[in-house]
Amino acid sequence: MSSKILIIGACGQIGTELTIKLREIHGVDNVIASDINTRNLDLVNAGPFVILDAKNFNAIKDCCINHKIDTVYLMAALLSATGEKYPMEAWDLNMNSLFHVLNLAKSKQIKKVFWPSSIAVFGPSTPRTQTPQHTICEPTTVYGITKQVGERWCEYYHEKYGVDVRSIRYPGIISHKAMPGGGTTDYAVEIYHEAIKEGKYESFLSENTHLPMMFMDDAIKATTEIMAANSEHLSIRSSYNLSAISFSPKEIAESIQAEMPNFKITFKPDFRQAIADSWPSSIDDSVARKDWNWSHDFNLHTMTKVMLRELAKTYKS
Ligand code: AKB
To answer: How many CA atoms lie within 13 A of 229 on its CB side?
Structure first.
């Protein structure tokens, strides 16, 4: 029997493409998309959709009962840059939504949970290159604190209550369907849009700031694969390190210039530079590769080609 899935935060950057992929795998009617508003009309009109506040336990519970949900993907969150502007809102949304879903799993209302963590769990005292799975985590952003604490709670609910919760630490995700919002890695999406629209981009991170990144297709592949993995193979119930590519604003600009020689980049770092400086530049994800055979497909060059091709079509139409 196919799973009955609820995606909370389905209109966001990752939620949008996750909804499409999960509907391909499980069937449109078996995947209920939800969000606090209807900001992505293509997604809202593409299949079952409910308006849902991730902070409202009873609303999530009623939705799970009404739609006989067994699996929840909790994608709603305030990200790193927005979290610094609205710290208490970030704490409220990121933590309470997680408790609501974990408690539904604890009471056996649902069977399985996916919750994304992030490279933001790391901080300035973390080894910066090839950051290991188990290492110092002293995040300095509110978002990072919520993700680190969330990881501890996921592991706790798994150990104490047998909750089947699975998680990966996403790096910056690059995609061409829905825009990201409020993250420090967002520059790596904006740059492609501006390349197509204006032929130039002003980066809010400095030229040599290397961060771990990943093309959306790889992120969706990782998410569906960890959820399909045999439970006994998963040795990590906090969150898995996940890695694909690592590059700086200068290097992504060079990869665009290889396709568009007239593309120009300038640099004007803002408050997000300090956040980026507190994060690793590359990640060791060997545990994920061993436990559930994770591997990525896209490098910077292949990703740039797809991004420019798809965005050119979007802006033409
Ligand atoms: C952000 O920049 O805040 C996010 C993340 C790395 O989790 N993209």
So the answer is: 26
Instruction: State whether the beta carbon of 5 lies less than 6 angstroms from ligand 1.
Output: no
CA–centroid distance, 273 to ligand 1, in Å, is 13
CA distance 38 to 41: 6
Q: Of 143, 157, 187, 192, which is the active-site residue?
A: 143
Architecture of domain 5-171+216-241: 3-Layer(aba) Sandwich (3.40)
Contact 13, 179 (CB under 8 A): yes
Which residue, judged by its Cα, is nearest atom 4 of ligand 1? Answer: 183
Ligand 1 contacts CB of residue 13 (under 6 A): no
268-310 pLDDT, tens digit per residue, is 999 999 999 999 999 999 999 999 999 999 999 999 999 999 9
Q: Where in the chain is the domain with CATH 3.90.25.10?
A: 173-213+244-316
Q: What is the pLDDT of residue 39?
A: 85
